[in-house]
Structures are given as C-alpha cells and as structure tokens.
Amino acid sequence: MQKVREKEYTLPIKGLSAGKHRFDFAIDGSMFADSENSRITDACLTAVADVEKSATWIKIACNIKGTVSAECDRCLEEVKLPIDTDAKLLVKFVRTEEETDDDEVLILEPNESELDLKQFFYDYVCLSLPIKIVHDENDCNPEVLEKLNLTAKKAKTKKIENEKENPFSKLKDLLN
C-alpha cells in the first residue's frame, strides 16, 4: 500500500545535489482552512526558498510575500493584510545524543527522502500577523461601530449610576 503525502509544500531531499537551489511555493487559503484555530480565512502568498544542501545538513532561507485575509477584531468584517517575512531553518541529518529539535534546527533521519515545509510556512505566516487585526479607522463597518459606541455609552452610564448609588464611591477619590 502506497503512503499518501501532500506534495504541495514538500522539498525533495533525495536526489538533490549538494549546493544551492531555489524553490517557489504558492500558498493559498486551503493551508489555513485545515487548522481549526487559524485566524486566516484566505491567502495569496508566494514562498521563495533558497536551499543550500551539504552531506549532513540543509540550510533554508525563505521569503514569504503576499496578502492574507482575516476577520477584523473590531467589526468582524474581512480585512486584507500584507505579509512580507523572512524565515530560516537548519535541517541536520545526523543526531548526536545531546542534540534535540528546537525552533531553528530540525533533526531528520538520514534516510528521509522529503521534507514537508507546510508547518514551517504556516508558523511563520501566523507569526507575522499583528496582535490586533483591525481595519484602518474609516474602513470598519459603520453599522457595527455605531452599535459598539452605543454599547460603550450604556456601560459608561451604568457605571456612573452605580457610583451614585454607592455611598462609599467618594472614598475611591481619596486614593488618587
């Protein structure tokens, strides 16, 4: 029975001659749709990987460029974000007893024939996203912003009413 592997983001290791090589990968929204926690809804990215291979290691320097779509944290509408990030990975084929995998060094068995870069690409695209994903101030959905402002005004009014009812609310001003 033949093992089914995703070939879209794989780098052929066997048969790759020593020296420098360049690989181009197209990344679309399907990569992010598979992940249940991804904030990215769609993508149009190009990853250019410069690969340098020797007998015991492979150095990968990659540039990922394009746009991704995500949900705005303020109005929940789609927002397009530019992505331009550089990523590096070192792959070693020989494992010593004290060596373990980490974020920048990946250890593979010497008999591996392919390297799947899907998780590598996914991680670096997600890390390049801003912490707060929002439209520019004037591009958010105005209906949602109006509802948010009304909710904020109601909360502020309720807080003021609670302070008026509380006879000890004036003591809080003494601490300032």
Number of helices: 4
Helix content: 10-25%
Strand content: 35-45%
Class by SSE composition: alpha+beta
Could you provide a short overview of the structure?
It is built from four helices and seven strands; from the N terminus they run ββαβββββααα. It has 176 residues and is of the alpha+beta class.
What do you see in this structure?
The chain starts with 9 loop residues before the first strand and ends with a helix. The protein is elongated and about 80 Å long. The chain folds into 2 domains: 10-127, no CATH class; 142-174. It is an alpha+beta fold. The protein is 24% helix and 36% strand. Strand 3 (40-53) and strand 4 (57-71) form a beta hairpin. The strands form 2 sheets. The protein has a 5-stranded mixed β-sheet. Strands 1-7 form a two-stranded antiparallel sheet. It is built from 4 helices and 7 strands.
Provide tags for this entry.
five-stranded mixed beta sheet, alpha+beta, two-stranded antiparallel ribbon, 4 helices, 2 domains, 176 residues, elongated, disordered N terminus
Give me the secondary-structure topology.
Blueprint: E1 10-12, E2 19-28, H1 30-33, E3 40-53, E4 57-71, E5 78-92, E6 105-107, E7 114-116, H2 118-127, H3 142-165, H4 171-174
Parallel strand pairs: 5-6
Antiparallel strand pairs: 1-7, 2-3, 3-4, 4-5
